[in-house]
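help with this:

***
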Amino acid sequence: MMTFWLCLSMLLADVPTRPSACEADDDCVITAQAACCSCCPGVPRSVSRQELAEQDCSAKNCGVVPCKGTACQPVQDLNTLQAVCRAGTCRAEPAKVKKNPSLCIRDSDCVAASFSCCETCCPPPTIAATQAELDLKRGECPAKRCSMIRCAVENCPAQAPPGVAVCRSNRCELAPAR
């Protein structure tokens, strides 16, 4: 029981009490990063990217925190929330299903694919997009006017390894493969 109160007091002493300042939604991020001296993840919340980067737990002197055998509460899936900036303050709101086909909510919404409507001599670059966005691009291909190509020995630019598609700030992007 003493361990519970010790952990709770450390958690409460280290939780930021000031609201996270922002100017736009991209300034905010959802995190479950707990207090520096906590054994368990915290409650998901929205903070500014700058505030999250500035939280330096290495400077904290927590002493020995007795975490072994600590039962942590389940944490809400971070993908069910979105970080928004409202009146200059970062807030966490339920993630909405996006109508824009290029917007994502979670990594599984994104795919990495090589895509080009027209034939090319060199392989097209790998892009990150939602499946709905790729389907829209493929649907636009019949309307494209592609010129006939004749491929000679062509020096194709070197391409980076394809990587994996991830959702960052509601946009799909390529990240290095792990």
